[in-house]
Design a protein that fits this description.
By secondary structure, this protein is an alpha/beta fold. The chain has 12 helices and 8 strands. The protein has 2 domains: 63 residues, Four Helix Bundle (Hemerythrin (Met), subunit A) (Up-down Bundle); 190 residues, Rossmann fold. The longest helix has 24 residues. The protein is elongated, with a radius of gyration of 24 Å. Bound molecules: guanosine-5'-diphosphate (GDP). The site of guanosine-5'-diphosphate (GDP) has 22 residues, from helix 6. Guanosine-5'-diphosphate binds next to helix 6.
């Protein structure tokens, strides 16, 4: 009996030790870099991938799955194809368009995945990057809903431009979010950028106007203007953004060189609906698609290009300062199709 008790106790102890060891070895789910949140800034720069972040779809890529659907005895491979596209976050209307176009071109014995690939490449078009003047002050107006990653993207962009030898100023035209203002200050300091801000509640247009003057006086090469992002359905926000844009136009003598819409990839189609309101109000020239490192599937990039009519110019692939990449259409299409 004593021997039996000793064996049972022994087994329990071994089990506990193994449990502890194994749980320590398993990384925390979904966390790849330190999160600055609102209170601090991540310190570790992660190595950035050479190409645009891949969609995180396990198993065979889209092309493989499409071939399987058409090779099997599925009743209706076309609706299967539509389902695969929607499942990859392409969105219902762009998925339906792709299926319609491929179906119209498809001939017996052809590889449907190759045709889908052609459609994807044609929607994405050539890669386009941020376009800033080589002389004088370049202005980047940044818009997007709160939480989309505006502050973080501005910080990363400022750091990237600084590392290229540019003198960067940042204006905080969102004069109501105290926490965001603080966070922007931390990012600005880190990027060696100058932050222009005024007291809480100041007129956002006036901040933008002063910022242009201040950036010029300091000899800055680029001014990045942050804006408010409270809910898009509130009409006054869109009016406020239009005004900030008009003020910049007046102060600089031309439209902002880039009007960047920051869009959270994990919000999928919902985010696109919101984004339409911004594109109507302020003539967006490019999208910064954030959080492509998380659970977001790559297809949302296609929906953005197709439904908003503007190119994705940069993608956010994490919370650290180095996690911003130029968007590469060809690499992205290859990764989406190949998995
Ligand atoms: P804002 O309200 O639009 O200014 O959004 P923030 O810049 O404060 O970002 C909101 C949250 O998203 C923060 O926790 C950021 O660290 C996080 N975030 C921003 N960009 C990315 C990204 O590309 N990847 C990941 N994983 N998180 C991001």
């Amino acid at each position: 009996m004593e021997l039996l008790v000793a064996v049972v106790v022994g087994l329990v102890v071994v089990g506990l030790v193994l449990g502890v060891v194994l749980s320590r070895r398993r990384p925390a789910p979904g966390r790849t870099s330190p999160a600055p949140g609102r209170g601090g800034v991540a310190t570790g720069d992660r190595q950035t991938a050479a190409t645009t972040a891949p969609p995180r779809t396990p198993g065979p890529g889209l092309a493989g799955r499409i071939r399987s659907a058409f090779g099997s005895t599925v009743q209706d491979p076309w609706s299967e194809l539509e389902g695969l596209l929607i499942g990859a976050d392409v969105g219902p209307s762009t998925s339906a368009r792709i299926v319609g176009d491929v179906r119209a071109r498809y001939g017996q014995g052809e590889d449907p995945s190759a045709l889908v690939g052609e459609e994807i490449r044609s929607i994405l078009g050539a890669s386009s990057s941020l376009e800033l003047p080589t002389e004088g002050l370049g202005v980047v107006l940044v818009v997007g809903v709160n939480g989309s990653g505006k502050t973080t993207t501005i910080g990363k962009l400022a750091a990237r431009l600084s590392s290229q030898g540019k003198r960067v100023s940042i204006a905080n035209s969102d004069t109501f979010r105290a926490a965001a203002s603080e966070q922007l200050g931390v990012w600005a300091e880190r990027a060696g950028a100058h932050l222009v801000r005024q007291e809480r509640g100041a007129d956002p247009g006036a901040v933008a106007f002063d910022a242009v003057q201040a950036a010029r006086a300091r000899g800055s090469d680029v001014l990045i203007v942050d804006t408010a992002g409270r809910l898009h359905t509130k009409q006054p926000l869109m009016e406020e953004l239009k005004k900030v844009r008009r003020v910049i136009e007046k102060a600089v003598g031309r439209s902002p060189d880039e009007t960047l819409l920051v869009l959270d990839a994990t919000t999928g189609q919902n985010g696109i609906a919101q984004a339409l309101a911004f594109t109507e109000a302020v003539e967006v020239t490019g999208v910064a698609l954030t959080k492509l490192d998380g659970t977001a599937k790559g297809g949302v990039v296609l929906a953005v290009r197709d439904q908003l009519g503007v190119p994705v110019k940069v993608v956010g692939t994490g919370e650290s300062v180095g996690d911003l990449e130029p968007f590469d259409s060809e690499a992205f299409a290859a990764r989406l199709l190949g998995g």
